[in-house]
Amino acid sequence: MEFSMKICLIFLCNLVSYLVNMFFQKRNQHCYVLDYECFKASDDQKLDPGTCIKVMMRNKNLGLEQYRFLIKAIASSGLGEETYGPRNIIDGREEFPSEVDAHLEMDEIMFTTLDGLFANTGISPSKIDILVVNVSLFSPSPSLTSRTIKRYKMRDTIKYFNLSRTGCSASMVSVDLVQRLFKTIANQFAIVDRCLFKLRCAVGTNIGYNEAYGCAIHVEDQQGHQGALLTKTLPKVAAKAFTENLKILLPKILPVYELLQYSISALGRKATMKGRYPTAPRAPSSFDINLKSGVDHFCLHPGGRGVIDGIGKSLGLCEYDLEPTRMALYRFGNTASSGLWYVLSYMKAKKRLKKGDKILMVGLGAGFMSNTCVWEVMKDGLEDTRVIEARVSAMSPAKGKACPVFNDSFRFLTCRFVICSSYIAVRWFNMLKGVVDNSKKKADPKAQAVKAAKAVKSGATFKKKAKKIRTKVTFHRPRTLKKDRNPKYPRISAPPRNKLDQYQILKYPLTTESAMKKIEDNNTLVFIVDIRADKKKIKDAVKKMYDIQTKKVNTLIRPDGTKKAYVRLTPDYDALDVANKIGII
């Protein structure tokens, strides 16, 4: 009996020791930023107003109205006169970009940034354990991570990741990846390419239904030119993704009293509305929670003036909170996923950060993704003017909010020209740069009144109507003149996409118990499809979307009016593997 008691006591002590060790090990798992570096291009890559005009004038397919629209868009975008551009565009080679140009650009950005980072931290490249590179639209072979490892002769056992096509939220995705790796491997050094703070939490959401997936996508137009297609549903999709993200993030960072206050007010508002209008549709509630009770500074994605204004208004932020984001956009433009670190550099240059302050970073990207993370400042006296110049004190928030880049240099935007030939239009456009239009200035009101009085006295305003001699007993009324429609601004700014493509046909896969049984037993996938799609269109849509061959398609109209499609795969494909690939299992 005594022997068994000793064994139980030893086992209990070991269990308690193990649990205590795991608790402290879990508690002390933190991810710290020792230093970060932002790329600053050379002065010969600056896009001043003159260079922008030269780039636009090289496109001979644009008319005067298109030129005016481009300049107005730039003038209201929030960009300054000292942003940067790629060398091939400045040199006039944008129509035929090559992979050599892309490699040269990436080498300049990555290696200049990493050289400065290693010099500032004193850490040798051979001590790096994890390397993460994220570049959305350029993914060569060998990868950019291999190129970096070769350049700095990093060790063979390094863990490297090459992320691509993650859009403007790639930086937050990389930070979240490194944090998760640190939880499995302790005391490691990592480089997040482009990236003295402690990471409190990181949250990512991805809403991948059809409307969200296609609202921001990289495609080719009818002439084969690549570009980004942004649809009208983008603001609604971004708001939904951001809302879903905040539902997970806010309970982690806000104090308990703020969450209780918000819950009580939300329940009271819901009960009041239900009592007054029991059958009325429920309107979306406004964002009335106080974020500043848990966050001191905000790093928003500097994707454009409209994005900044929209997020700032929805979160209830003042102009002081939006100033760093506006000024990062004004000075460097939309730098995609790395823009958040330029916003943070502006805060450091302005000496805003103090020990214990919490910084919220918000990134939005295609897919559609919304990623956020919260950093805690670990020490006072953070100041850095390597990227944001020493003259940062002269950069006022008014410049970032309303940035009249071309308004002072090109006042001819207010003029109205009537020019027949596009060649003459381009020549006039080139000649009238900097000309101030005074033709619309109103005359003196007193002089106009005196002139009108003289005209009345002289009888100049009264004209005798000439008599018309008629020689016929019938009257002829000419037809009303009908001119061809020639709107000033076209109604459709982009070619319409196919109304019934694969994204529209396949709405979403069913994950019910009966659908899962079909997958396991009959090698059949079940989808909810568009009511207008027939079996052939469904078969083609499945092939285009998932690159699989189907043996047979059966359809069924459900009682609620939706259409269900049973897609049986050929023996070469396993429905379980396909379902796992598309993420429904």
* Percent in helix: 40-55%
Name of the top-level CATH class of the domain at 502-582: Alpha Beta
Q: Please mark out the parts with pLDDT under 50 across 5 or more consecutive residues, or reply none.
A: 279-286, 412-442
Q: How many strands in all?
A: 14
| Spatial gap, N to C terminus | 51 Å
The strand order across the widest sheet is 1-5-10-9-8
From the alpha carbons, calculate the radius of gyration and give it in angstroms: 32 Å
Task: Give the rounded overall mean pLDDT.
Answer: 79
Describe this structure in words.
With 585 residues, the chain is of the alpha+beta class. The chain has a domain of 81 residues: 2-Layer Sandwich (Alpha-Beta Plaits), CATH 3.30.70. The chain contains 20 helices and 14 strands. A hairpin with a 5-residue loop joins strand 6 and strand 7. The longest helix has 26 residues.
